[in-house]
Specification:
By secondary structure, the chain is an alpha/beta fold. It has 9 helices and 10 strands. The strands form 2 sheets. It has a 6-stranded mixed sheet with strand order 6-7-8-3-9-10, with helices on both faces. It has a 4-stranded antiparallel sheet with strand order 2-1-4-5, with helices on one face. Helix 4 packs across helix 5 and helix 5 runs parallel beside helix 6. The chain is globular and about 55 Å long. The relative contact order is 0.17.
């Protein structure tokens, strides 16, 4: 169980997160939905300390608890070792091949031997279906291929928790299905994931639980059936009706 408690974040006078609490069970897939500007992406970035929360804590199964209000600099790397993040815009290193992007953490941080790196990177390329693109640079790949390499890179860390920040928002519609297919495969393997997404059908199909955020907090959470078919709040019904119209 990963326990997230009281996450708050302000940008100047604007409070974006207002004390978010969330429990994430091992192997659980949680989709986070809601209108734009409600703090969904900021929440993910705070969990991985890409944004500095004003306060809050996160606790992991190994007994480690990180208090964001007094997190020491040396603890940031330890915190990030528990999770990895896949971004909207891929964030691959342009001067490295697909293979090198995936291998970098294994080589520089984990200090794996070359034989171990080769085996792991080869395995991950097979998982995302891009073995034939291992020597290609990001500029030689489509958006969907870049995102699949980014997912493989995040998987290389072997994280306790994977974070996806609208992973298909920068893709052409015909490429979305390939990326969602990779994420669906991760879900079937019981990788623990938090996914911010606007793909409602995907969220319904892949999630164990769905969280609806608005106004810097969680308005409601439940199973996909509860959120999509019988939400308790009228605001969620309005949001889902609007999404269907578009």
């Amino acid at each position: 169980m990963i326990e997230i408690r009281g996450i708050e974040k302000s940008f100047g006078p604007l409070q974006v997160l207002k004390g978010v609490d969330l429990d994430v069970r091992s192997g659980e897939v949680i989709s986070i939905i809601g209108p734009s500007g409600t703090g969904k992406s900021t929440f993910l970035r705070c969990v991985n300390y890409l944004e500095t929360p004003d306060r809050g804590t996160i606790s992991f199964d190994d007994g480690q608890t990180f208090d964001f209000s007094r997190l020491e600099k040396g603890a940031v790397r330890e915190l990030r070792s528990h999770s990895s993040m896949v971004f909207q815009n891929f964030s691959l290193f342009a001067n490295l091949t697909a293979w090198e992007n995936i291998a970098l953490h294994l080589q520089k941080v984990k200090r794996w031997k070359a034989r171990e790196v080769n085996a792991r990177v080869g395995e991950l390329l097979r998982v995302v279906g891009l073995e034939d693109k291992k020597d290609s640079y990001p500029r030689q790949l489509s958006g969907g291929q870049q995102q699949r390499i980014a997912i493989a890179r995040a998987m290389a860390i072997e994280p306790e928790l994977m974070l996806f920040d609208e992973p298909t928002s920068s893709l052409d519609p015909e490429l979305v299905k390939y990326v969602l297919g990779v994420i669906r495969g991760l879900a079937e393997s019981r990788q623990t994931m938090l996914i911010v997404t606007h793909e409602m059908n995907f969220a319904r199909d892949v999630s164990d639980r769905v969280v609806f955020m608005e106004g810097g907090g969680i308005l409601e959470e439940g199973t996909p059936e509860e959120i999509f078919e019988r939400p308790k709040h009228e605001r969620i019904r309005e949001f889902l009706d609007l999404v269907k119209e578009n």
